[in-house]
Amino acid sequence: MKPHGKWKLVQFFKRSSILLLFGFFVNPLVSLPLSVEETNNYRDIGKYFEYTIPKNPESTLSDLLKEDTLWRPNPKKVISFPRSKHPVWLKITLIHYGSIPHTFFLHLSNPVVDLFELHTEINGQWRTQWSGEQVLQKNKPIYSHMSAFPITLSPNESRTIYLKIKSDNPIFSFVSFYNSRTFIAYSKKQDIFFAGYFGAGFMMFFFSLFLAHTLRYKKFFYFFFYLATVLLLNTYSTGFIQYFEFGNSNSWKNYLFPITIHLSSIFGLLFTLEFLETKAFSSILNRITISYILILTFVLLFIFVLDLRNFIQLTVFLIIIPIFLAIFISIFTLFKSKKKLEVILFLLAFGVLLFGAALNTFTVQGFLKPIHFASYSLPLGSALEVFFLSLALVLRVSDYRKSNEQKQEIDLQLKIAQKLQNGLLPKKRSHALGYPLGFRYLPATDIGGDFVEIIEKEKELGLFLCDVSGHGIPAAMIASMTKVSLEIWSDILNKPALAADKIRRSLLSLLSGHFLSAFFVYIQPEERILKIANAGHLPLLHLDRNGNITTYTSYGRAINEFVPSDIKEKSFQLPVEGTLILFTDGVIEARNVHTGELFGEERFYQLIQALAKKHPQVICDSVIEQIEKFQKSKRSDDDITILALSLDSSFEVSL
């Protein structure tokens, strides 16, 4: 080392010793210089900076050098001045103890878009460099997305540099000083790492879009928008937002930053509610979360009222609540839901996100010792979050796939059952044995349990109506088996009670807890014979042309596997004119969806009395129409069936 260099080294140690002793007893007015070598790297060097905040925000470096400026030691190991709205000036003295000139890089890892001005004196001339406005992108694209400044120092050179930070955001930066080889390798690795990160993120982005479009579930749409906002947010935390340029100003980026935070919180909570199905487990938690979503939406409008810096600080505070809320909901759901693995993955996802956000925030605020990893804790936390959420979604998609397969199987069974059902209903016909006929059927579901059969012989007619308990495929299957059993009655049509008993015996082993009510009607027109057998069903009605109603019924219990039906047969003289009406209890038990009122027997009787002179089909159509109007719905709680037969063979009243 040259004598001149040795003298500088001695002077440096003397000055450092004096400052250390002075700083031990009183608060120092200056910070220590930073001694650098080309073989070393220096991280979290905020403690070597001094700062000042001029009263005049337009103050230049010349103003600060001319005035009696008070420079204070930076209070933290990071650059953090959240309350300052004016530009902050910082200075640091660098001493290079090396054998050859070397270019170092001063790197500021900042999660938002700021404008940095670096002022350094070279050969008696002040030189200014900028970052944040993409000046570096043109010259050094390798580190254009980072706030970094090249500084060349000669051996044993001491230089004081000044840094001006003009920001619309709360200022917090991790400051590092790299030798050129390490910085270039670091920036390349960072580019590769974040290229992989955003590449995987965009693949997941398009995959979530595909899921949302294909499955049409709200949770996948919410995840799509949430992932989009998270990816956009991480372009800030990684500095890649610097690559996006619109116009000559970056101010739009500063406004987009808090807006993105709000949107990620809103869509994150919406996704949480849908994915964890919170409403099914806790309506209170569901309402609280929706209320907070509305608050976030309302606060978002404050961007037009509040100062941008204050709005960003408010946003950063508010984003912590959705993370804690999502974690609390997932913990609560863990004890309620049967899908434990999906909930655990969801809990891990927001847990790592909270850890990353907390590490970054506590380090910036000075609660934790600065860790360089903290500057990347947010993107890494969100990357792990997306990974765990993706696993949870894969499990959910697998469940949906199985559900869809089961649904397809059920749909196939329903189609088969519907074919059976259609086979149970009478063919479209306007007459039976020469008598005008009407029929209407309104099932409660796609598959019903009501069943009508019309058996017509040369001089005899049999009408059969039954109502199987319940509805759906089981009821339709029993109704189908009942139709097969009716072949027994076809052979002994004039003995309905005997046929009913034989049919009951044939069905006993097939009912499986179900029961059915049925009504058998036998008509012999030439001899004016009317025979009936009732198995626990509503009576047969006779409506004459004057509107008078006569009921025909007989003793008998519903057909079931536990109690004998004891069906009795009764014979009557067949009326000369009028209409015979059979119907199921769904007619009189139709319910108004708003008031809960039943359609009722009285209203039904009054309706058909007004239709006494109408064709049987008109009577059936009118009853169904009035029931639908009454219950305010085309679907009922029970199957509705009505069958009408006019006893006037010459009935010619128009439809």
From TrEMBL:
The keyword Ribosomal protein does not apply. Residues 430-647 form the PPM-type phosphatase domain. The chain crosses the membrane at residues 192-213, 220-243, 255-276, 288-306, 312-332, 344-364, 376-397. SUPFAM superfamilies: PP2C-like. Keywords: Hydrolase, Membrane, Transmembrane, Transmembrane helix. InterPro entries: 7TMR_DISM_rcpt_extracell_dom1 (IPR011623), 7TMR_DISM_rcpt_extracell_dom2 (IPR011622), Bact_Sigma-Reg (IPR052016), PPM-type-like_dom_sf (IPR036457), PPM-type_phosphatase-like_dom (IPR001932). PANTHER family: STAGE II SPORULATION PROTEIN E, STAGE II SPORULATION PROTEIN E-RELATED. This is Putative serine phosphatase RsbU regulator putative membrane protein putative signal peptide.
